[in-house]
Amino acid sequence: MEGTLRSVLYFASMSVRKLQRTDGAIFFCTYTCWNWLPLIETTALYNAVYKWMWITHRKGHLILGHVIMPNHVHVMLFVREGHSVNALLSNAKRFLTYEMIGRLQRAGNNAMLDILKNAVRPSDRARGQKHRGFTTSSDIRECLDEAMIQQKLEYMHGNPVKGKWSLVEDAIDYPHSSMAFYFRGTKGAAPTTHYHDAIFA
Fold first, then answer.
1. Of 12, 13, 62, 134, which is most buried by a Cβ count within 10 Å?
2. Crossing angle, helix 110-118 and helix 85-107, to 10 degrees?
3. What is the full DSSP assignment across the chain?
């Protein structure tokens, strides 16, 4: 919990400015495994999520923060002007589902494969989809000012120690999070950019 307190004190000390966006926008996004199943943990999918982040980064978008949980992903994105955040997340889920199914097949986890196969809607099956790895919709919120960015970063960074989760004692030590980047300057596996560099550059 100490890491969460650090977050409150750190962000409370920062100025709050309205975003004057002329190019692109910042979004706080969440996409969740089908039926909240811990598929990311089950298939050790963390490295594939980072791979998607790097692909997204190389296309000119920015990863401003993230937390990868056992069954969902929080990510803050700066999306280039003229690009769709919905398309980015749809591509993420399609790419990660493909990787997830391959890992389940190699592990011989037929019970889970059957669950994900039966979750496909008839309309999607008619278009060739064989398994559903993530929920159809994603939670997407545009961050309209610095205060909202700070609030969403604090929320996502606290996830590993909140509610039913007790993944680490101190949220700053959770390895699949950008919290250590913001508080220690530690570069992790994700291509993280400080949000200041996106809105005040």
1. 134
2. 140
3. -HHHHHHHHHHHTS---B---SS-EEEEEEEEBGGG--HHHHTTTHHHHHHHHHHHHHTT-EEEEEEE-SSEEEEEEEEPTT--HHHHHHHHHHHHHHHHHHHHHHHT-HHHHHHHHHTS-HHHHHTT-----B-S--EEEE--BHHHHHHHHHHHHHGGGSTT--S-SSGGG-SSBSHHHHHH----SS-B--HHHHH--
Rounded CA separation 157/76 (Å): 11
Can you identify the CATH homologous superfamily of domain 2-199?
A: Transposase IS200-like (3.30.70.1290)
Output the pTM of the full model: 0.88
Q: Residue 61 corresponds to which tokens in the numbers above?
A: 């978008």
Instruction: Dump pLDDT digits (tens) for 144-189.
Output: 999 999 999 999 999 999 989 999 999 999 999 999 999 999 999 9
pLDDT in tens, 56-104: 999 999 999 999 999 999 999 999 998 999 999 999 999 999 999 999 9
What whole-number distance in Å separates Cα of residue 195 and Cα of residue 151?
13
List all residues 6 or more positions away from 193 whose beta carbon is below 8 Å from its beta carbon.
62, 63, 64, 78
Phi, psi of 110 (to 5 degrees): -70, -30
